[in-house]
Amino acid sequence: MVITQRLTPESFVRLPRRGVVVPNRDGTLGLYNVSTYESGKGTRREWRVMDIDSGSSWLLTDDDKVHDVKWLPDHDGTIAWLRSATNGFTQLAVVCIGNTGELKDHYTAAEFDAPVQHLKLKGLDGWVAFAVVGLAGKDGSLYNEETTGKMSTARIYDDLNVRGWDTYIKPRRHAIFYSALVTGDDGRLTVAGPLRNAVRRQDLEAPAGMYQPEDPADNYDLCEKGIVFVACDPKPVHPRHHATSDVYFVPVDSWTAMVACRPVKLTMQTDHVVGYASNPRFSPDGSMVAYLKKPFANPADTRLLMGHVSSLSSFDVWKMCIGSAWDLAPSSFEYSPHGQSVLILADDCGRRALYELELRYHAAPRLLMGRPSVHGYHLLNNGNDGVQLLVSASSMLDNSVYMVIDTTLASEPRVISSATRHGQKLGLSHSQVSEIWFAGSAESFVQGWLTKPSNFDPEKKWPVVLQVHDGPEDAARDEWHWRWNSVLWAEQGYVVVCPNFTGSVGFGVGFNARAYGSGLDYPYQDLVNCLESLAEIPYIDTDRAVLAGGGYGGYMVNWIMGQPLAKKFKTMICHGPVFDTRLLQLYQDGVNERNSEDLEKWNPARPDLLRNWKDAPPVLVIHGDKDYRYPVTDGLSVFKTLQGLGVRSRFLSFPDEGHWVINPENALVWHRTVFEWMEQWVGKGPTGTEG
User: Which end of the chain is more exposed for a tag (fewer CB within 10 A), N or C?
Assistant: First the structure.
């Protein structure tokens, strides 16, 4: 019997949030983390072990100071983790468990005198090499800012790198530190010597992405021969290239001694010179390095590059294997166990799909899993030559699904665990979610997602919400979203439509590339066409239409307020929006004379457009004070402009939030405020009354 609960803001924030599950060496157990919020008690964070055959799980630890929990390579039933201790110190612990999860041993293998994170492990002939990331002092040693007495809070900067998405850049740079775990006389593992700095360059911070939302651990890798990592260009040819990055290799002759060489940059036998590198990976035998590269001139054209460690030069895998560019943009990849193919995660028509590409001439990417959206994948058993993978996925109806898939496609995927029983626990069904297609602006069709409430009656007319996704080079996907969850919105009594307008990823490189060359022209016209197509659906009441978006979506809301389309909506909601594109350029990348005309052309704050805001419908503006991506002054400017023009508007502020609302209590206020605002102006459900 499935126990159901209606999806409300309250039940939504209380749902357990599971991470990616990682199998042990023999594929019998899985390790994952889960966080659960309980009103009045805060968030409980757990690391759990799952029996992959039955799906049952048990608690490993609920110590909220524990992080970076990993299976220890070549040590059956052994786990390593980092634990934040007092004064900024970090403990490296080793935990031994039995086949049914019983704790057999638990001890501290080492304590480091500074905060470290992003642990990586590599098994090497009976001992284990490991690396962590921490701040480096002037002499290159591990640095602890918590034990350094500092009377002033002043910061001094000499380049464009001042702030990340929600924090200021630290004066000390991060570096990768390494050592090895060896077995002592007592049979326990211990660290063989101090942590040593693999970077040894004051002008490099490694890995790249320490102040970005993506996981920086994805930007470095280990093998027996050394460490490969991504770092930003220390001397960009133009200030606008300050965030561009490259891949570096550091040979390690001994994991218990200082490296003899400084990092060496990988060169490319391709025209993709200046751009953004990510996801470096060693081949299983350590002879090759592969990584992704987005060219600065055309970030939509992501390439997979690969080269020999000995030559430190790389070639384009697409050209070598496929013969031409691949029309999808990969977000990550991993080598297969034998090293003869790569597993690639890429957006594909509104989902995160998993492909395999054989590393040979005349190969073509082969789809392994297209639905639900894949978030993580690991080889289930090192002895099966990659036949089975343990996949972590989600859909609009289910926030976490663990599955086993057969890469030969000889059998159907086997579900190990579904957090919501495919939505049944929340009273949801697959009939609520469907795809729509409509004629776009650039001689192409545009895809979108249409979500209906669980009590939907097609004989009645429902208010509609048009959600504009962030990006623009992002996408509305069939996956669980913890902020803009279309199913949660629909359950309040609305039909929710999420279009993948021009510039969205997953619909071809050309479609994505238009995000960089056409400003708001194509996306805006796509939204016009979308609303016109929705008006032809009998059960949609476009006279009660809501426009909502965050980030780029908020920017689009502001743009629309100055356009004729604004009259089609009864209310608007914009979160973390861009107000003035000229200032956006300055506080993100500095002066860029080449596109100053485009910045003004697509500027919502143009005086001729601001005059039109007086006719805007009621607008709810939301912003976090720690949003350094699009500063809170933009949200305040939107709100004060509307107030000055006499437009009904409200400003919701979060002093402790950044670009996203993370705190569960704040998320609850966010959802309640948004839904109350919509109900006030368009009602809810088929019998709702306009405010």
Answer: N
Instruction: Quote the pLDDT of residue 272.
Output: 52
Strand partners, 200: none
Band (545; pLDDT cuts 50, 70, 90): very high
Nearest alpha-carbon partner for 515 in 536, 500, 537:
500
pLDDT tens readout for residues 238-263:
666 667 899 999 999 999 999 999 99
End-to-end CA distance of the chain: 41
Query: What gap in Å lies between CA 505 and CA 17, rounded to an integer?
Result: 26
Q: Check residue 385 and give its pLDDT.
A: 55
Q: Residue 32 — φ and ψ, nearest 5°?
A: -150, 165
Cβ atoms of residues 86 and 62 within 8 Å: no
Residue 539 CA: distances (Å) to CA of 412, 452, 457? 36, 10, 8
Q: Are the CB atoms for 174 and 229 separated by under 8 Å?
A: no
CB-CB contact of 5 with 16 (8 Å): no
Domains and CATH numbers, the chain: 424-682 (3.40.50.1820)
Calpha distance 166→184 (Å, rounded): 43
| CB-CB contact of 286 with 224 (8 Å) | yes
Reference 572, options 530, 526, 621, 538; nearest CA is 621
Q: How far apart are CA 384 and CA 27, in angstroms?
A: 10
- Three-state DSSP state, 371: coil
CA distance 303 to 404: 28
Which run of H or of E encompasses 61?
strand 57-61
Q: Can you read off the two tokens belonging to residue 59? A: 């608690």
Q: What is the 3-state secondary structure (H, E, C) of 234-301?
A: CCCCCHHHCCCEEEEEEECCCCCCCCCCCCEECEECCCCCCEEEEEEEECCCCCEEEEEEEECCCCCC
User: Looking at residue 378, what is its pLDDT?
Assistant: 95
Distance CA 688, CA 494 (A): 10
pTM beyond 0.85, yes or no: yes
